[in-house]
Design goal:
This protein is of the alpha+beta class and 342 residues long.
């Protein structure tokens, strides 16, 4: 099976290891996790720019396949090696094409031995008990290329001019899925477009499906009619550095991070959307200020670039998957190394 490319899914998993993890692959799925090695439970990683974060990679498995799932910061610290062999429920994980297929769990979206999925948990435990000895790096079918998360290649740090070398060719795996290339760049937002920057989504927790308004209700293709909806941002913006300018896009969490950093407060998506022309309290000047405020504030953008085909036409797409605030001391050291190696 192949991991769904939908952004919202649920999973029930059992974990035998805290570092490697394996999972089932349907848009809504249950899985059991197995661990074949005993890596250090919590790993602190420092990027080129000195930004420190904590992560743990789980190896999730069930009868349909296995995949890596990354836990970040508080979640990574909460679940240690003692969690191996337990059943986990993960909700609304991000599905990435990085190293074939991998998952990234959100904050407060992970539960161990969930009461709500007792029947399925028992079924998974039974399967795991019967097949534990057979589980290897090749069975069940792995969906994440080994040696990637946590132990893989360092994301290259480049200038915007050099970033155009990434994602210039259509690359696909043996199942026909488009693969991306990753890079990091220090750049400044210059323009954030206000053209269709958000959509209204289903209010059911974990569901990010677009809803359509029908009178006084909003209809979700998965959860039916809802009495309310939630705005989610998919924002396109231009960034610049000393070598040039480039366009990229980001999803909801990264967009809100930029807006809130500039506002030095806690803007909610509803706060922003209500000021738009379609909002409850339209205010063009205030709305424009929110979109202009993040400009010229530096960020380190961790990006994925890939060439995608639409109606037979190849088009390069760059998405900022994560943002970091620069550590200027480390950035200075990085520049010195580049000068010395030139």
């Amino acid at each position: 099976a192949v991991v769904s490319t939908q952004s919202t899914w649920e999973a029930v998993v059992s974990t035998q290891s805290t570092w490697e993890a394996v999972v089932s692959t349907q848009s809504t799925w249950e899985a059991v996790v197995s661990t074949q090695s005993t890596w250090e439970a919590v790993v602190s990683t420092q990027s080129t720019w000195g930004n420190q974060f904590t992560k743990r990679v789980l190896n999730l498995v069930d009868a349909t396949g296995q995949v890596e799932c990354t836990l970040w910061n508080d979640e990574a610290k909460k679940f240690n090696e003692d969690c191996a062999g337990n059943v986990f429920a993960l909700k609304a994980c991000k599905v990435s094409s990085f190293n074939n297929r991998s998952l990234s769990a959100g904050k407060d979206r992970v539960a161990m031995n969930p009461e709500q999925a007792k029947a399925k948990s028992e079924e998974l435990r039974q399967w795991y008990s019967e097949n534990q000895g057979r589980i290897s790096k090749d069975w069940p079918q792995p969906m994440t290329i080994q040696g990637s998360t946590g132990t893989g290649k360092k994301t290259p740090t480049v200038s915007l001019a050099d970033s155009f070398n990434f994602g210039q060719e259509v690359k696909k795996d043996d199942k026909g899925r488009t693969l991306g290339e990753y890079f990091e760049v220090l750049a400044y937002p210059m323009v954030i477009t206000k053209k269709n920057p958000f959509y209204m989504s289903c209010p059911v927790e974990g569901c990010m499906k677009k809803v359509i308004q029908n009178g006084s209700v909003w209809t979700c293709t998965v959860h039916g009619n809802q009495t309310s909806c939630q705005p989610r941002f998919i924002t396109r913006f231009a960034v610049g550095d000393h070598t040039g300018q480039a366009w990229m896009s980001c999803f909801h969490d990264q967009a809100m991070e930029m807006f809130n950093n500039a506002a030095e407060g806690k803007l909610t998506p509803t706060d922003i959307v209500k000021l738009s022309a379609e909002g409850a309290a339209p205010d063009p000047k205030a709305y424009e200020t929110i979109f202009k405020s993040p400009n010229f504030i530096p960020w380190i953008f961790n990006c994925r670039a890939k060439m995608e085909e639409y109606d037979g036409v190849a088009r390069r797409k760059v998405v900022a998957t994560r943002l970091y605030k620069p550590n200027w001391a480390n950035y200075g050291k990085h520049l010195i190394k580049r000068i010395e190696s030139a």
